[in-house]
What does this fold into?
Amino acid sequence: MPTSDKTGNCPVLVRASWRASIRAKVRRFIDRWYGYVGGLRGLSTEDARGRATLLKREIDQRPALQGLAERPLLLTLMAALHAWHGISLPDRREELYHEAADMLLDWWEKRRLKLDRQGQPVNPQPSLIEWLKR
It folds into this structure.
């Protein structure tokens, strides 16, 4: 007979099975993420798989990340951050959001900058901070 966890709501065996199911989904998402992003960035299949392995290993080895990875939006942010700069991911959700905001602002700034043939900015748009001050 399965025992209950400390809350008494979920049998331990059911919870362990659920965790294994989530882990498999997280790993599948990461493989697919890097399969797609690797193609966009021109990475070799081997390089994309290697990066996916690194992210899966990082999540497997850090319980704080496992809890975050269970949520699809946070897993997507984690994968995007890992692909963006490939460094160790933060443990706390607040830090993850902070890093994600930096990443998104960086993408936004790069997209709004238009260059002429000599590499000079053409009609530069205001930065996000300048735009928000209006």
